[in-house]
Amino acid sequence: MPMTSAAERRPTIMEVARLAGVSHQTVSRYLRFDGAGLKPQTRERVADAIAKLNYRPNLVARSMRSRVTGRVAVVMPSLAFNPTRMLSGATRAAHEAGYQVEVISPEGGAAARSTRILELADARLVDGILSFSTVDEAANNLPKGTVLVVSPEFDDEMRGIGDLADAAPVAEMIERLAESGHHRFLHIAGDRTFASARARATVFTETIARLGLASVGIFDGDWSGESGIAAVEAIRSSDRPTAIIAANDLVATGVLRAAHQRGWSVPDDLSVTGWDDAPGSEYLIPALTTVNTKIEQIGSNAMARLIGRLRDEAPVLSTEPINRVIWRESTGVAPTA
């Protein structure tokens, strides 16, 4: 015999309000903004009532009634790269504005992302959508009232583009090393299918030419420590550079090891720079000169633009440079000999 006891019935927001001794509007505000703006005692009473009743909001029904969910979606390409820091910046900005965040990573390229974005918009489960990669024209056919912000920081393979491909620090490092007497440079590039690797190689070539310095060449690496070792092993003694600009910190660690094996002291005989400010790079011997990228800032600025659109307000964006050179012990004055 089918059972229809009250235990199976889903508790309502009105029951939560009665148990907490508040209005249903207060409960709704608690759910939408995670308690932000309510008095501590009120937040505690509502939270206790929700827990006692095991209340779960019907998000579909709520969004159909009000077309406001208090939720936003972040769409990423397939996660071949760990985007934790950028997502941290985006989610922190959303939470500070009272929004919950759903992260979605559909398989496929721009067409697949656009299809998923349309599904989210049609279901009215989120107020706005932030995509960190490109979408196709289908995403232009969103239902009225749906806000989409595209901040293309990655391509379909999670390779950095946009601000992540800014190579200006390469020029800054070469310029400062040149002021310290360096005149022969080698660049160990990353995988050239990455826009960032291509940009750094281009800036390296242009800066060397602009300053009238000598280039030992560009070694095509693959972001690995092994490519740093291979590049140093391939240098002829007669062509030894005074400074090596490595594609990232991992490549630079390979350079440090290979230089040591060849009897070259860093930085006395050879200056070395990396990129990424990877954890532990400051503890290497010598500590590695590198580039710190504020990936969290990219995420928070992108989310701020979405929230600004949702609220019809000008977004408050951080204008600090994304990249900053951190000078440490692996760089110094050029050798005199």
Automatic annotation (TrEMBL):
UniProt xrefs under Gene3D superfamilies: 3.40.50.2300, lambda repressor-like DNA-binding domains (1.10.260.40)
- Tell me the superkingdom of the source: Bacteria
Q: Where would I find the HTH lacI-type domain in this sequence? A: 11-66
Q: Name one GO molecular function term.
A: transcription cis-regulatory region binding
Q: Which InterPro entries match?
A: HTH_LacI, LacI/GalR-like_sensor, Lambda_DNA-bd_dom_sf, Peripla_BP_I
Where is coiled-coil annotated? none
Q: Which UniProt keywords apply?
A: DNA-binding, Transcription, Transcription regulation
Protein name stated in the entry: Catabolite control protein A
